[in-house]
Known about the structure:
By secondary structure, the protein is mainly α. Helix content is 77%, strand content 0%.
Amino acid sequence: MPFIRFLLYSNIYIALAALSLSLQTILLLNGALSLFLLGEIFSASLAVYVLHSLVSLYKLRNTPLNERFSQIFRQKRSIFILFVLAAIASGVLFFYLEHRTKIALVIAALPTFAYVVPLLRGKRLRDFSYLKVFLVAGVWAFVTVVLPWLEMGLSFRPLLAALFLERAIFIFAIALPFDIRDIEIERMLAVKTIQAQIGIQKTIYLSCSLLFIWALLVYFIYPMPIALAFTVLALLSALLVIVCRKAQPDYHYTAFLDGTILLQGGLAAVLFLVFRL
């Protein structure tokens, strides 16, 4: 369906996932809902992911396009307009944030921009071997945990460190299978990945092991109804990872694996509201 393809390949879908995880953090910390922060996280995430798609499309311009980039190429005008709108919205909303949130956002923006744009002798940070998945997990945890914490004006507490670790582990586990999907692209770009180093089977074992650790960790952080729901989510995510042993269509990654991030935030929000946690 055209609408579903646009939702996925315009990166609105993944930006909604970042929004949902940020809302999850706010609810857990019993903070005041900041529409400016949520709008900033959504628009900035959208702008970054669209820019990443466009830059990657340019770098692969002389190679046969796979399913994912064929979809992006067909929609490149629309998503460029989306990038401009998201960048403007992000710039405007930035000025409504708390001062320390602005500083943290700028700090997060530096490696993120270098990840997307080839600033380092024509290379992006994601073009350096083994770095990609660590950067993705770290930035996602920082944006969806630390930024809401700063915006709410909370002091440091052990819960923050635990939540950051929990978030980074989940994103790391979900990001690993994408190295399997992108194996040909990384080979063309001469980028070594964890998957290339240890193989597909061990990458799947590592991802599932991290999901198991994450499923245990949530019991120390979240109320019981949410922890139980996240256990089911971990099992579902592991199943989606396991089937990556065989070649899967792109939507398996773009819709289903990325969808586990959106589902996590959605489950938490619903259960917080239903049980008044």
